[in-house]
Amino acid sequence: MERVSGVDWLSVFVCTGVCGSGNLRIHDRRVREAMLGMMFTDKECRELGYMLRKELDEMLLDIGDRKLEGPVKEAIVKRYRIVFRIYARMASPRDLSRYATGLRSGR
Hints:
The chain has helices at residues 42-64, 71-88, 93-105, and strands at 3-4, 7-8, 11-16, 24-26, 35-40. The protein is of the alpha+beta class. The chain has two domains: 1-40, no CATH class; 45-107, no CATH class. Strand 4 and strand 5 (35-40) form a beta hairpin. The chain is globular. The model is unreliable at 1-24 (pLDDT under 50).
């Protein structure tokens, strides 16, 4: 985390979604959804990254399950892509490469 004038800068994580009270909401005419800005501490960012990785791992197991097919598998793949895009905003390319294969295998 960067230190400027003795202040720890908070990490900023932006996702699309419904705005709660007290959150920054950005509207873009090119995007139909509002952007929701949230500020996290470094520890909170690590925890969020951990939760997203675990969710991606679980969905990869489900995508690889031969018993699942049709609409169920399509829904999991669609959700995987959404969670992957969220994780891509905060992960390093090295960490991200592990989960990019799930996008290809889910087609």
